[in-house]
Amino acid sequence: MAIPSFLNNDVINVENLVGGTEARCFAVFPDGRRFNMGNFINLEAKQDFKKSKAPILGNPGGGNRKGAPTNKITGKVHYNNSLFRRFAQEYQRMRKDLYFDMVIVNSDPTSTVGEQRVILHGVNMDSTVIAKFDAESEFLTEDFSATFESWELDTEFNNTGVREA
């Protein structure tokens, strides 16, 4: 039996990969201020769905129905500025919560897939490190955790990273 031709095209080309350091991240605040968030070491914005199990006659496993999403950001940043601490202090004093947008751009000039730009709307931080030291650490870092209300795929990678079978 002959192997279908689409099974022979399962190798990705190295020029279709995107370098992990080839990204930019910006925070855009409601008052119009925009910050280059180059202090991020890594970041992942993720949408998880709550699923409900649905009993189905004749199907012992039942079915799964997708429910409301939860949008979450996790990351690590260099501990080298006071921006988020300033916002935490404002919340402590005035109970004024901060929601802002983040723009994440993946653009590797050595890759053939082009650029992807994602905008996270309504970012709201979960916690903030107020002060820190670590005598054993070469560089101080802090974890970043937040939720976001919605997101938009502003610019998509081209289709060279995947092929239709």
UniProtKB/TrEMBL annotation:
Q: Which SUPFAM superfamilies match?
A: Phage tail proteins
| Origin: domain of life | Bacteria
Pfam families (UniProt xref): DUF2001 (PF09393)
**Alphabetical list of InterPro entries matching this protein:** DUF2001, XkdM-like_sf
According to UniProt, the name of this protein is Phage tail tube protein
